[in-house]
Amino acid sequence: MFSLKSLPSTSAVFSAYASLAAFMMLVQSIFNQFIPHQLQVYLLSIFQGFFIPHSSSNNITIIIEEYEGYSINQVYEASEIYLKTKIDPSVERLKVSKAPREKTLQVTVEKGQEIIDIFQGVQLKWKLMTYENEKCDPNNRHSNYQQTQIERRAFELSFQKKYKETVMSSYLPYVLDKSKTLKEHNKVVKLYTYGHFAEDSGGGPWGSINLDHPSTFDTLAIESELKKTLINDLDRFVRRKEYYKRVGKAWKRGYLLFGPPGTGKSSLVAAMANYLKFDIYDLELSNIHSNSDLRRLLVSTANRSILVIEDIDCSVEIQDRGYHDDTFITSRNKFTLSGLLNFIDGLWSSCGDERIIVFTTNHKDKLDSALLRPGRMDMHIHMSYCSFCGFKLLASNYLGIQDHQLFGQIEGLLESVEITPAEVAEELMKDDDSQVALQMIVQLLLQKKTERDAAMDQDKEVECNGQSLCRINTNIEQSIQDDDENSPVWTAYVSQVEDNQASTKASAHGICDVVN
Ligand SMILES: Nc1ncnc2c1ncn2[C@@H]1O[C@H](COP(=O)(O)OP(=O)(O)OP(=O)(O)O)[C@@H](O)[C@H]1O
Ligand SMILES: [Mg+2]
């Protein structure tokens, strides 16, 4: 018999329990953090083997079929993507494939192959299964009953019954979420063009190819502040779904990129698409003949995309026949700028999510004020000539150098010479030898500087002539007023007129000298 005295006190029991709980938590955290996934699986299977009787009734299996009726089962799709990340060296059979336009090999599990995953300490067993399904096929002439066997695939997910709630409410949502991120990460960005690549159009008005444009924010030579602002703006835009809903605004953002040719407007669009993994729809206005054409095109663009209209200033015809004459252009077979803007402001933007619209132009000053009015385009981005900071990025990208003795000279020249990143890139590509390539940049900059100085001299001369003549007139008027025929200005003027030999320009200079 135990005496009451020999029993531990309640506080002692609680304190022992607290220490044990803390110890277990520490062990669990060490287990999760420091023990590799494969070893975790192994240890858990041994540990569970001791305590859990091998009764099948203790386990539960969820079947995740590939198709739900005629549509693909999203849980199956997500599981397939997710399990690709769980393939470790213990997996014995794999399937490898590659579609013609894909860049990398697709590795998937083979049927019958088991994959073990651990989630919050729970062991989950995945297995890909296939089964035959009978399907009525009117085209199969070999079968009396016109029945054909088709192979269906399904994942079996087994785990202990007691974790059903964890699996249903935490694990499967986690798999869905994770696969979405993975899908985004591996997504191949597409470039859609109206009327081109028709074989790839899938019946819609847009044809597509993979966007193989290598431009990214890392390769883009623009001011670092501008780059940071832009990236932040894009990040904020994509995470603001709820915000746009709350304030009752369509979830879209408009950018107007303006600047001289070769400053990276198109490259920036590609960088944005690559960064967000958004497809690009390149809308060429010259291919559009009516507002109904435009409506059809715009409604058939997908969410999470960038609609680009390049060189909007070249669409003068649209502006002329459209916006200004809006009152009489109501017929369905005309295309107008107001039609485009209406879509952007209203109908189209409210029927889609996460849309970005980009207009590019070389001449912002030529744009219709309807496009420039506040609120139409959210950001106006000036793409300008190459700065030294931009040059250094290009040199690093093209030549792989961070510094060079010619950098100082180039920096000085860039302060006064306008050169586009496209021109710099072209020179840098001409020679693998950094010394030679940079020397060519210096040559080009010096040549541009000479041309610019000459142009400035000419401008100055014209201005100086104008000012001098002005001053001469004033002086002559003064001389006449003072009746001072001996004034140096008057004398100079008279002698110049009498000589009648020098040009007006020279006269102006001569007189200028006398005056000064
Ligand atoms: N800012 C930049 N950073 C890096 N490369 C650039 C940049 N600007 C231009 N380039 C290079 O020059 C090429 C042409 O640039 P891009 O087509 O983007 O210029 P653009 O401003 O769209 O010109 P346009 O007004 O003629 O359409 C690019 O493929 C790229 O190699
Ligand atoms: Mg361009």
Automatic annotation (TrEMBL):
Q: What protein name does the entry list?
A: AAA+ ATPase domain-containing protein
Question: Which InterPro entries does the UniProt entry name for this protein?
Answer: AAA+_ATPase (IPR003593), AAA_N_dom (IPR025753), At3g28540-like_C (IPR058017), ATPase_AAA_core (IPR003959), ATPase_AAA_CS (IPR003960), Mitochondrial_chaperone_BCS1 (IPR050747), P-loop_NTPase (IPR027417)
Q: PROSITE patterns, from UniProt?
A: AAA
Pfam families linked to this entry: AAA, AAA_assoc, AAA_lid_At3g28540
Give the GO molecular function terms: ATP binding; ATP hydrolysis activity
Could you tell me which SMART domains the record lists for this protein?
AAA (SM00382)
Keyword entries, A-Z = ATP-binding, Magnesium, Membrane, Nucleotide-binding, Transmembrane, Transmembrane helix
| Cofactor entry | Mg(2+)
- Output the superkingdom of the source species: Eukaryota
The record's comment on protein family reads:
Belongs to the AAA ATPase family. BCS1 subfamily.
Which parts of the sequence belong to the AAA+ ATPase domain?
251-387
Q: Which chemical reaction does it catalyze?
A: ATP + H2O = ADP + phosphate + H(+)
Please give the organism. Answer: Aquilegia coerulea
Biological process (GO), any one: response to stress
State which residue ranges cross the membrane: 12-31
